[in-house]
Amino acid sequence: MPRRIQAALVCGGQWHDFDYARLELLSELAAYEDVHTSVYQDYEQLGQLSSVNPLITYTCNVMPSEQQCAALSEFLAGGGRWLALHATNSAIVPAAPDADHLFSTPPLRGNLAELLGSRFLGHPPIAPYTVRPSTSDHPFTAGLGPFTVTDELYISALHPPLQVLAHTEFVGESTGFAEGHTTVDEPRPVLYLKQHGAGSVCYFTLGHCRGRYDLADLGIDDLGVVDRGSWNVPEYRTILRRCLRWALTGQPASTPG
């Protein structure tokens, strides 16, 4: 007999339009008649993971406790699939008043960086950049060539082994951040898989979005514009849908779309 898929979506945090991201993700999930999605703003509300698979997260500056990290480890070891989107790997705090930067990115709690495969360090100012599939024979990127996005380009500390499926290049400053300044020209992962026992994490760094009033806590009352980042880029949507299919079924799409 068909069994209903119980998905959990954690979507919340700072400096992004989480209402928009939540609506878009739920709209994609609604295409699956056998999926029921519970929605949370943080890991504290998430509770037990024993009845959940997959876990989908779109957060910024939302960190699980060490106890919750242990539960996430158990979830993955037991075969859980975790689709981690955009700033899930970020912890960001204001710098000291006399610092030469605005933000610091301290270590993540517990073993979260090792679970996710990366820890956010910083990003340069938002500007167009090219994303390149790292392989042509994986279902997540099959049929796709290089494409351009205007999004946050994440510089992260990596925790291999990672199966990198798409990447970009960047050398320069992560303006405003204490870390994330690069002098080495090497691929920067945008999409990757990391295995954990019987389970795995798929991390996709694209998907920035911001409304006019999402930086009010930084003293910017009205940005005057709405930023949808990669959400209007067809290749982003294609990859996101394939990642969601993998998260829900364990099987990535075998054909483009």
TrEMBL record:
Residues 24-213 form the ThuA-like domain. Signal peptide: none annotated. Gene3D superfamilies: 3.40.50.880. Coiled coil: none annotated. It holds the Pfam family ThuA. This is ThuA-like domain-containing protein. It comes from Mycolicibacter nonchromogenicus.
